[in-house]
Structure formats: C-alpha cells, structure tokens
Amino acid sequence: MTADKLEKAGVSFGIRNQGGTITVEVRPNHDTIAALRGVLISFELLNGITLAQAKKLLDVLNENVIGLLVTTALDDKANAVASSEVAAKL
C-alpha cells in the first residue's frame, strides 16, 4: 500500500528568451518542495508567440495562479520507517 505526500509552495512566473524560444518559468517563492530542489520548470511557448503575447500570458498566470502542488508517492518501506519512528517516540 502506498501513501501520498502533498507539498505546496507559492509561485510566480517569469519569461526567458532562450535563443529565440520564449519560455515561461515557474519560480517558487520558497524552497519548500523537496522533490523540486535544484529543478527548474519552464513551459516552452509555441513558435510565433510574440514577446508581447508572452507578457500577457505571464500577467494572467501571476494574477490567477497562487501555488504549486506536488504529490509524491511514498513506498511501503518509507512508511514503515516513518511509523516506527513515531511509535518509538510514544
């Protein structure tokens, strides 16, 4: 049986122009999601999207998206260790 671990972080978005390709970057406000430490997430926009269009998209994202949710599955071994640690403290 597996359990899920839910982690949340506030985010904002930024634009990067990499060699003619415009990307929208997810920028966590704090380093609170362990699975994403050292990871950069970005979305590549369609060819033909102008910088002005990308900025409009960026404004909509920053005004309407407040956070990022990451769910990771915990395996039985990790659950057993966590349960034994809790039991030992009781």
Describe the structure.
This protein has 90 residues and is α+β, with helices and mostly antiparallel strands. The protein has helices at residues 51-64, 76-89, and strands at 3-18, 21-28, 41-44, 67-74. The protein has one domain (7-70). It has a 4-stranded antiparallel β-sheet. The longest helix is centred in the middle third of the chain and has 14 residues, at 51-64.
Layout of helices and strands:
Blueprint: E1 3-18, E2 21-28, E3 41-44, H1 51-64, E4 67-74, H2 76-89
Antiparallel strand pairs: 1-2, 1-4, 2-3
Features of this protein?
90 residues, alpha+beta, 31% helix
The helix count comes to 2
Distance between the termini: 24 Å
- Overall SS class: alpha+beta
Order of adjacent strands in the largest pleated sheet: 3-2-1-4
Structural shape: elongated
Sheet with most strands: 4 strands, antiparallel
Instruction: Give the rounded overall mean pLDDT.
Output: 85
Helix content: 25-40%
Rg calculated over all Cα atoms: 19 Å
In sequence order, what are the helices and strands, one letter per element?
A: EEEHEH
Beta-strand level of the residues, as a percent range?
Answer: 35-45%
Uncertain residue segments: none
Count of structural domains: 1
| β-strand number | 4
